[in-house]
Fold this protein.
Amino acid sequence: DRPGKELRITHKIFDSFRRLVNVGLATLHVFTAWEPEVLCTVSKVEGSPDIKDTRPIGLVAILRNSVEGIMYEAITDVWDKAGILSRLNKGFRRHVGTDSNRLISTATAEACYLWRKNAFVSNRDVTHAFDNMDRFAGIEMGLLRLGVPSWWVRYNSHFDKRGKMCVRTAYGLAEGVFRWAGAVQGGKGSPQKWTAMEDVANTMWERRTDGGVQVPVSEGRHLSVVGAGFADDKRFIQAMLGDHNDLTMQDGDFLFLLGFE
């Protein structure tokens, strides 16, 4: 064999993959081989045999995931550079951790104890968040609102609508079932879809100019703490009960509008 022959063969294979992916991007066609989403359950509670304590991950075709990953990587770059996402969302964000907000929550509790201040706190956790996202009012309108090109939003919708959840059996994959809503939990772009959908409520939350708990951080300087969001989890912090109830009702109405229970 001539030197470099294996390298040339590898180059041809990957170039074929590139051409195939570009055909899909140019025509918005979803290949049949990209449809299956193989169900793989991951335990959330160690040792629990209950199916409710598992997380349903969908394994998807690597080329489909590559397309979503590359595109959403570029989309996220634009969002970050433009600074258009709400600062209250700390989940699914690059270079943004949760430690600072945990420290702020602790500092708020300590300040309220020392200075005898009221702080009304509640937590929100959406059940089966990815599975129940509304594809039109939630995902599509959320992405369009943040400036994502309409052609990619349509192609993204084709992925979700054509995706078939398949269960593994001893005889191979069972016949796939089309999902009526949501995005596959194993998809590279699913976190960004949730971020786009929730940014509407997070932005309204961020624009509330009053209601936060005033926490002293230095002499003569205070920080208004209202809480933060971590993907589908949120912690609301308000100084007055009325403001807290109004905020949680506003967030609940938004989720109800999108079909969450």
